[in-house]
Amino acid sequence: MGKLFKDKLGFGTAPLGNMFRNIPEEEVMATLNTAWEQGIRYFDTAPFYGAGLAETRLGRMLANHHRDEYVLSTKIGRVISDELEDPITRDLGEKGGLFEFGNKNKMIVDYSADGTLRSIEQSLKRLNTDRLDIVYIHDIAQDFYGDEWLIHFETARKGAFKALTKLKEEGVIKGWGLGVNRVEPIEITLELGEAKPDISLLAGRYTLLDHEKALQRLMPNALKEGMEVVVGGPYSSGILAGGNHFEYQKASPEIIAKVEKIKSLTNRYGISIKAAALQFSLANPAVAAAIPGASKPDRIVEDKAALNEKIPTEFWEEMRKEHLVAEDAPLA
């Protein structure tokens, strides 16, 4: 699967679903075009991002390029209805309100085999393409569904897992896996051994601010089972890139204090905190790519520069000494 990615830097389109703000169309297109100009050829999206808005916007940009030039992934788990509702009150679990400026379409949770195929069919139309490379099963985790997440997981195990495995075997898609913000669903999938995910997207759980659990448990199993990992949210919702969000909410004083400690070291060594965050996430041998999100063109340029920035070994040694990274974490 790693051969799919020409570069370890991809682009996550969640912000383009109008996450947190109403983003003008021209700004969206400028951001996507800049990503292409910067050589990014892996684009990840999902119906959840603005109830189809991010997919539609991405599809408009990709229509200008030959399908064989890029790798495309989207997600299943939510089927978009023609019925409308208020996005502010739309029931989206703990992450409700993320896309209050997105489309008003109602989203129906559905991890069944039929729902999987319907979601893919809808995504293909919004993306204006004839095929997907990777399909992730989206958000079957406690952060979205509370204690009922295992019910959705079981539905996906009996439905989406089998449907996507069949599509892979038929050559319709090149790979599938989970797209989640928690390590547990991926771990359980690997432990069950009933299905063989090729690649999974883990958002926010392998970053400078949160990596212990994934490092100790998930990454070794992923390597053992031959499942590659794409790191989503390497900047922890923006707090590691100059923003003030962590875990999609305003960062706590404790998180802000930890970020300030990291910044003091990056400043001392004359490097950007973005470079430290991005290169840390990519250093683990199980990680095939990282997909920061962005809604402004200059952020894309910063990401590309962060990927190529030279970080002194001494910096990482001091990060270990200050207990800002795990003792056994692979470092860039």
UniProtKB/TrEMBL annotation:
<protein>
    <submittedName>
        <fullName>Aldo/keto reductase</fullName>
    </submittedName>
</protein>
<dbReference type="InterPro" id="IPR020471">
    <property type="entry name" value="AKR"/>
</dbReference>
<dbReference type="InterPro" id="IPR023210">
    <property type="entry name" value="NADP_OxRdtase_dom"/>
</dbReference>
<dbReference type="Pfam" id="PF00248">
    <property type="entry name" value="Aldo_ket_red"/>
</dbReference>
<feature type="domain" description="NADP-dependent oxidoreductase">
    <location>
        <begin position="8"/>
        <end position="320"/>
    </location>
</feature>
<dbReference type="InterPro" id="IPR036812">
    <property type="entry name" value="NAD(P)_OxRdtase_dom_sf"/>
</dbReference>
